[in-house]
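Margin note from the TA: students keep mixing up input and output lines. Inputs are the sequences; the output is the structure of the whole complex. Example:
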Amino acid sequence: MRFLKGRLPRPVAHAFSDTVTVVAGSVVALVILLALFAPLLTPYDPAEQDAVRSLENPSWSHPFGTDQFGRDILTRILYGARISLMIGFGAVAVALVAGLVLGILSGYYRSVFDVVIMRSIDVALAFPLIIFATLVVVVLGSSAVTVIFAVGISLVPLFTRLARSVVLSLREQEFFEAAVSVGCSDARMMRHHVLPHVFPLLFVQATTAIGLAILSGAALSFIGIGVQPPTADWGRMVSEFAPLVFVHPYLSLYPGLAIAMTAVACNLLGDGLLRAFDPTASRVVA
Amino acid sequence: MTRFMILRLLQLFGVLLAASAIVFFSLRLGPFDPSSQIQEATLGDPERIAEVRAYWGLDQPLIVQYGKYLSGVLHGDLGRSLQDSQPVSRAIGDRLPATIELAVMAMLIGTTFGLGMGVLAAYKQDTALDVGGRAAALVGISFPTFWLGVMAIAIFSVKLQWLPAGGRFSSELDFEPTTGFYVLDGIIQGRLDVVTTALKHLLLPALVLGLLVAGLVTRITRAAMLEALGKDYVRTALAKGSTARSAAIKHALPNALLPATTILGLMFGLLLSGAVIVETVFAYPGMGKLLVDAISVRDFPQVQASILVLATIYVLVNAVADVLYVVIDPRVRLA
Amino acid sequence: MGAHKRKAPGVNDGQRVPTAPGEALSRTDLLRRAAVAGAAVASTPAWAPAALAAPRRITASSPKTLVVGTDAVGIDFVPAHSFQGWGHTTALIHMLEGLYTYPDWDIGRKVVPVLARDFPRRDARNKRKFAVDLKKGVRFHDGTPLDAESVVFNYMRYLDKNHPFYDPAAVFTGGNILFGIAKVEALDSDTVVFTTNRPLGDFKAQLVSPLGGGLLSVVGIRQAGVPNAGVAPQGTGPFRLVEARKGDQIVLERFEGYHGPRPGVDRIVLRAIPDPAALTAAILSGDVHLSWQVSLDDVPRFQRDNQLTTSSKTSLSAGYVALNAGGSKGVKTFLDQRLRIAALTALNKQKLIQTVLGGRAKVGAGLVAPALWGYQPQLIDFHKYNPSKARTLLSQVGDVPAVTLSVPSNAHWPRAAESVQADWEAVGIKTTIKVIDSAAFGATMSQGAHDAFMWDATPGQLESWSLYRVLFGCSNPFRFRVGGWCDQEFDRALLAAVATNDRKKAKGLIALLDRKLLEAGAWQANYYPDIVSVWRKNVSGFNPPVLRFASLNRVTVK
């Protein structure tokens, strides 16, 4: 219901929302394309050093300037997109699959499964991401795989709970009881009645989760957990530029904004998809 | 109700046990044990190293070590730090109030802004205020905390010189803490200068942390408020002659504030995670930094105790949130 | 989705909910009560009239406080315990004293006695015994007097396993302060006798070290017990401990009964700020008066600020690269000496210094840094940067293996590795960087399973030969850092350098040691980094250190 004057006309408001989603989607697509075609877009090698050109200001040949090693910053931003996206998609893929399986098992079969899985989720949640990732590094060493694993695990509770709550509400439905009474096998139930309802919701949530995963991955590489140098990585670039903030204050803007823009685009896209998917449900699932 | 609580408590205990086991064994699975520091200092003298390892009980089988650790915890002994032989609880006792103060401040800022923003944005849906609020929320959840921290210091500390660049307190003030919560201590001791100094040091890190909370709460509250505003009972109230505002406040608002509690636990977890970053950037002496440092020097007892304490707090906060939710909304109990 | 959504039974759309008998509160009531309670708490309490009193400010008569920005501080002040940070070590040298020291910890000057009365006297009959007379009238912070028994107690509890207060957690002992010392005894109440078990050239220098050398009150140790001996340290130094918070700060205040000259300030606060940007911000905003652990990147910023003084000195550290020259753990990568020389020749030290250290370092010679007497200026840039020479050598080698370069995860090391990687790749050595957690780095490299690694070495003990003794030697477990490489002539020369009192002779022997390492291509000092100190203009009397800890006794704050 609308209460006050001064609002934008309804059609305009809706168009705005829709436009935002479209723009967000384009940005995400753009980032993916930039990451894929990075070598074609820049003449520089992201690892190529040139001590003479250290810390140059932006110019025609180096639109974002150079870093301490004389490497072109724009190039490293482009290549850094690869790592961020890899971690974002990788972690979410892990969490999506795991969450789907665990959530459905938990919600469908209940009893022991439910208790064990929910308690394990609680244990997983008792570890803040950074702490968990640091422990993982102690055991597995620091690499992109470690980060994907750690961030992925941190997202599993999100997807598990979501899947589980959907399955639980499905159980209340009449068609569910009907199918069971007719003698549908579990496998058939899953395939025809459960998955088609669970998956779309999880997929939509995944879009937002990718933004979260990219942020988490950047935070981890900021504190030194992640890919090894000289691989370009946004979070690591921020941590490299941060100490220079008093002499070259604008350097960390480039990787920082890259992270922020990508995360914003993912969030907006996820919001838009959620709205399109279920116009009445403006609840934010946590 | 009591049965529910007892069950919850038991589950809490189970979670803590599992968490402590995971930490204990994963630390020792890593390729090194803490005598690496000792190796350096003793110049690799194998006899000396063996002696030190025996002193710390590191030469015994893992299960035995774990058993000793557990029995120690049950007796209230959390162990001694490998770095300085001091009871690990001492460092925790120093650093925990700092992180709690920071987290509480961040929660306060975040939820106040979040709730306010969310309610207003929904009430004035589709106006500039709404769009602005949603944009701010988006910034809160999308901008990396570590980057915001660095920028905040550069702008507010160095350029404008409004706020201190880090730390928890000014070394120039003569001050003996009572509880360890500096703001509280300042109030108890009746010292305004202590309170102002403590708050000044808390402001930037809490703001940076609270931004994330504010973003999440705004979104949830706005959605809940919108949903509540659209409900039948509101329409009924209006039909009966209520003003728009009083209908909103009396009927919609209470329902809108509820969903924020469901993510209390989640937010607390995010706060703890974010605290590590923020504590590093602002040199704020809290638990997050203590933990990461202890892990990096393989100070096992310190790590175990710190994670145990954090996990306990986290689990308690969640339990309280669950209970709160049930108390406030009896519908949940019936479901 | 399409499925018909049915409301779960019992859901009530927000009307006053049916509650159990006795529970008459509605949600609104609850919220209203909470708001009232909150307001009550927030309002000015009646019991705090003092809150309106004037805040305490620093006045001319209040203690003069110096705030120092450092890397890390701990809470355990037994000097022989594990290293807890240079800030911590700085606190130690202001609270505890040993028998000898460098005046104001300036290693350019000669060692002087502080708790000793004079230099050690060698026993004419037994060349292994040295007698040291103690200064009279010195008291510990707890009022107990310093006597020979205190010295014996402090040192023997590190050495003697059967000592009632034996300290198993004391690690900086046999390798450092008590290297070569077998026994410490009291001759009378004022005289201590040291018995050595090997020839030591300059004995008194042996006893100069903050790591292990400082003396604690015996009464204090007895009262506290072994595990807590370091918690409330009672030393003889010009400052005593007020408070210590691990990883946060240490506060020291002037000790009235100090036997030496009065220090310039009344209070010192050592704040731990490990993040370089945070430290810079604290200095720029005035939260911190002084620091010598600032990031080299920010020096231009400090120099622009006219409230600050900046000083740059070459430190005692040597940033080096070590190659697995001995082939330990089956690592064959660098077994060919030509490959090693090629790698060292391809390494562009100037570029490394420029890009990673902002130009603030000197190109390396031998292991000993310029400030120490063993420095070998004739060996500067021994393997001059020459990529074509490197390529020639590599073509002789033929099949060039791929190389892994290991570095610790902290500070500038990953960046340094990137610079070297680019150099090696440019001449055709395929290089992968491996970043290892800094806490475990030393132990990992001691395993000897690496190809090459970079790190820095800082002498803990200030005799020029000390680092060679720590790092190399055919029976030294740390020789696996160079893959087990060792050389008999090297070992003989090192022993001779340790045993001699003749500086000139020792210097010649050290030159031999460096040449062996460089010609074998096992180890190379790439640079000696600068140590930059920054302090505010209202701070005077500060002598910028080349060590990573400094004496603040002569510092005053206006």
